[in-house]
């Protein structure tokens, strides 16, 4: 009897455990799918869910239905169901950078080598971990202060991070003053102002009037480990444009501050991959206490700078190794001096805490080195302009036959180089006449854009602009007279015309618009998308994802100019309400094919939660 009773109890116990397991499983499926929220919501998924946070002025999705949205252009109306609203990410994602998200690295347990900065390189989320929600502004967000005032102060509410002000209080990076954060112009090495430091570098190089511009010969600069980009900010008055570069590291928001100030900047790191710029792009590279180990991996990081410098280009290096007398700094200085000597760099000037090296004008020195000297020359089949996802190599990039014969880059001084056909134009089979026609075409197009924008835009309305498909950079060239700068983006799979853009004295980067861009939310005032949507359709990527990404990087009250085919324009129009965008103007392309110009403005909206927090 006891045995039979125990058996019955065991059966009942097993049945109870199964029921509990099934119940818990159902709870997990139900709550897990809905509470994953912003931590795991699929950016590229077609299923859109409304989150708990609602935005003011938007259409409430009261029926709780999910919407399926198509990314195909030109479908019948009945087949293309568009969401009334996009879900809103919760406030902790107000500074989300999808491909530079440390939380993603932890969640996916990526095995990265921290010693070579792999964790600061791009790692984009797979489709199931992408966000398909609108990034909310922080509580109390205000329309940014206009340039040039923004160089010196920004609203604290827009970037509510003051740790750098405390951490760098003795170096004059930034100071909190009431509702604003003020930038006195200091840096780790130049506490008393970047302007004086820049003049010192020019004086060391014997440039006339202590002007680093050197009569237009120095135009593009790479500032590595730039902090809040005060060095780049004070170069602008000398007609020099710097690509201020820093990772999303312990000084997390330094690039966000730079862009909020209206200074050209980009999130990137000297790690394992080439920087997204073509060879021979910069006249000068700069590192002021940038905490980079230049000797690691056979000098691979210095060799990356060498790839990026033009013939005769300079590397200005301000660091303890250049002047300190302790044993470790002396060792680093000796080894670094030996390395740059083997790279054929020479000391152009050295004073106090700063040394300036100069790269050779020709290949002659490379050819005269002893056989087997390291670093070696790069292989003949290595393309120094291939950069998207390409690993760095510890080798010297020799000059082209043209540069060898010209004993330099052959570029006109600024500003003449903006409109002078550059020598590397021939790499694409483009003639000077084609270049000049492209320049003139875009001059007319930009003039037409500004006429369409005129009711909404004034001289100081926009500062940070992006040309999402820049081609030869003529959109940016047409804006020279305006107080703006342009991030020229060249697709990673098209003609690598970015080197022509740099040769014109402009700046930019390579990118794949199937992925998120390396910038913070709310950093650009105007986006120009010339056939970008048509291009990603051909690649099989989601146009809906692209709209969300454009919304992420666009400032509230900012503008989008789309120049594309009619089906693309019709597609975008269906999403205006969900994105909180409004149409500004539509125009034909004036006998230039079947492109349509569509101009949009992003509204300033806030979540109910952020409004409560700001009260």
TrEMBL record:
The keyword Methyltransferase applies. Keywords: Glycoprotein, Golgi apparatus, Membrane, Methyltransferase, Signal-anchor, Transferase, Transmembrane, Transmembrane helix. InterPro entries: Put_SAM_MeTrfase (IPR004159), SAM-dependent_MTases_sf (IPR029063). Its EC number is 2.1.1.-. The keyword Plastid does not apply. The chain crosses the membrane at residues 12-31. Residues 55-76 are annotated as: Disordered. This is Methyltransferase.
């Amino acid at each position: 009897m006891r045995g039979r009773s125990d058996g019955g109890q065991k059966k009942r116990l097993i049945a109870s455990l199964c029921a509990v397991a099934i119940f818990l499983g159902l709870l997990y499926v139900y709550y897990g799918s809905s509470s994953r929220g912003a931590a795991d919501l699929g950016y590229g998924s077609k299923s859109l869910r409304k989150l708990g946070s609602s935005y003011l002025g938007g259409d409430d999705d009261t029926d709780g239905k999910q919407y399926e949205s198509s990314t195909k252009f030109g479908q019948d109306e009945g087949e293309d169901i568009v969401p009334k609203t996009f879900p809103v990410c919760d406030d902790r994602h107000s500074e989300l950078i999808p491909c530079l998200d440390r939380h993603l690295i932890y969640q996916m347990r990526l095995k990265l080598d921290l010693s070579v900065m792999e964790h600061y390189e791009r790692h984009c989320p797979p489709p199931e971990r992408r966000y398909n929600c609108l990034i909310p502004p922080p509580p109390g967000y205000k329309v940014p202060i206009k340039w040039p005032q923004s160089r010196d102060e920004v609203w604290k509410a827009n970037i509510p991070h003051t740790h750098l002000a405390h951490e760098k209080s003795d170096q004059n990076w930034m100071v909190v003053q009431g509702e604003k954060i003020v930038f006195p112009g200091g840096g780790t090495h130049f506490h008393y102002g970047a302007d004086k430091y820049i003049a010192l570098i020019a004086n060391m190089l014997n440039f006339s009037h202590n002007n680093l511009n050197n009569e237009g010969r120095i135009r593009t600069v790479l500032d590595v480990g730039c902090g809040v980009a005060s060095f780049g900010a004070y170069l602008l008055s000398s007609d020099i444009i710097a690509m201020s570069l820093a990772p999303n590291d312990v000084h997390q928001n330094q690039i966000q501050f730079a862009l909020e100030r209206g200074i050209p900047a980009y999130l990137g790191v000297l790690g394992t991959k080439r920087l997204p710029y073509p060879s021979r792009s910069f006249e000068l590279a700069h590192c002021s206490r940038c905490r980079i180990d230049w000797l690691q991996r056979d000098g691979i990081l210095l060799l990356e700078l060498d790839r990026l410098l033009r013939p005769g280009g300079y590397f200005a290096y301000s660091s303890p190794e250049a002047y300190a007398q302790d044993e470790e700094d002396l060792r680093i200085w000796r080894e670094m001096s030996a390395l740059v000597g083997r790279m054929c760099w020479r000391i152009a000037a050295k004073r106090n805490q700063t040394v300036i090296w100069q790269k050779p004008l020709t290949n002659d020195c490379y050819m005269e080195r002893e056989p087997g000297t390291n670093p070696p020359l790069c292989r003949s089949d290595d393309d120094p302009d291939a950069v998207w996802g390409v690993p760095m190599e510890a080798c010297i990039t020799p000059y082209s036959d043209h540069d060898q014969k010209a004993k330099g880059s052959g570029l006109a001084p600024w500003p003449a180089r903006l409109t002078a056909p550059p020598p590397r134009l021939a790499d694409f089979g483009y003639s000077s006449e084609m270049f000049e026609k492209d320049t003139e075409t875009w001059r007319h197009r930009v003039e037409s854009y500004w006429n369409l924008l005129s009711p909404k835009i004034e001289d100081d309305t926009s500062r940070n602009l992006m040309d999402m498909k820049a081609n030869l950079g003529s959109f940016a060239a047409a804006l020279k007279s305006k107080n703006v700068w342009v991030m020229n983006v060249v697709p990673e799979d098209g003609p690598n015309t970015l080197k022509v853009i740099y040769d014109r004295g402009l700046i930019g980067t390579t990118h794949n618009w199937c992925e998120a861009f390396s910038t913070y939310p709310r950093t650009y005032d105007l986006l120009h998308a010339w056939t970008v949507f048509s291009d990603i359709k051909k690649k099989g990527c989601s146009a809906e994802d692209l709209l969300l990404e454009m919304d992420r990087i666009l400032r509230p009250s900012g503008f989008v100019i789309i120049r594309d085919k009619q089906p693309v324009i019709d597609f975008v129009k269906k999403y205006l309400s969900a994105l909180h965008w409004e149409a500004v103007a539509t125009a034909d392309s004036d006998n230039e094919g079947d492109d349509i110009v569509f101009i949009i403005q992003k509204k300033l909206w806030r979540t109910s939660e952020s409004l409560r927090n700001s009260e």
